[in-house]
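Let's practice the habit of predicting before peeking. Look at the sequence and jot down your guess about where helices and strands might fall. Then scroll down.
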Amino acid sequence: MAKFLRNRQGWPGAKNQRKPGTSMQLGFFTMPIHPLDKDWRQSLREDREAFILADELGFNEGYVGEHATDRAENITSCAMFIATLAHATKRIKLGTGTVNLPNTHPAAVASQIAMLDHLLDGRFIFGISPGGLLSDAEAFGNLDADRNAMFLEAINQVLAIWAGEPPYNLKGKYWNIAVERQFIPELGQGFLPKPLQQPHPPIVVTAVAPFSKGVTEAAARGWDPISANFLMPAWVKSHWPKYAEGCARAGRAADPANWRVAKSIFVADDDKTAREYATSAESPYRYYYNQLATKLIKNGRIELFKTAREQPDEAVTIDGICRELIIHGSPQKVVDELLAFREHVGDFGTLLYAGKDWRDRGLARRSMVLMAEKVLPAINAAIGYAPKRAAAR
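Done guessing? Here is the structure:
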């Protein structure tokens, strides 16, 4: 990638200058993929510790994924995991990344997410998707169903619950939700709870495909996208025009500040340490992409890992995937490469640092510290804006 040279003010900005008054925010996104033999208790403790550290470092928001049937990606409920962080964090907004709606009854989603929003005192973002792990779909009985249609029915019913009042009588193809015969208003019975944030928490969707039509439909409903950290830069770039298209349909401005982009990043005090940790055979970053790419390619989604649609299937390798998708190095090297990435894909508002297994706890924590204290300020200086200072720890 092109290098950016220092001047007295720091690095010069990329071509897509941010409008005055905004700056790049730093967030955290993890769909952690742990070694199969790692003690589940240890991985859960370390995953929680990463969010607590992100809060202490001033990360603006953090998301966690969920899968019920994967020993490596082993957070089975993102809502339950987030609930454990309600009183362990102070400022960071926490988001589901994502609730896989076809796998849960909409009334359960509506009531549990409403409670979670209250537990977090409104520090909550509602991330939703149809789900991508096919063993989950099989376990929940929807492997052969139209999960996109189930997703749409589920979110529509969740929002109808939050907007409505009992007695309820919602009819659908996949779920019916009624509280009529057992509605006893004088006892408070029969009420499905509403979230603290009205009319509902902010809604985000993960964009996991090139030229995603889902991004357009989400934007038309007032929802915002998260571009996944396993997409090649060309496919990340394709999301902005789709988002702008949806915003135009809804008559709202397409603001880059509302676009979140996840990226696999490892920062160390020197390039050699970073290279060894991020690229060696034992690297948690390489392990992450080997696991993820193997699953997605088996499911017919090799295109996600191609640098161009005409690239032959046999040219897609784990080495190539890691080379294209992992940014690693000293703070200056990481700043250079993130600025080049931003110049390529366009302006976006929040960079989501993608969490990985903590093979080396000290190096993993140090990377997050350097990202917050060295890399982000340099990026904002380069694009012409200073980030807000976090409250003293």
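How did you do? The chain has 13 helices and twelve strands.
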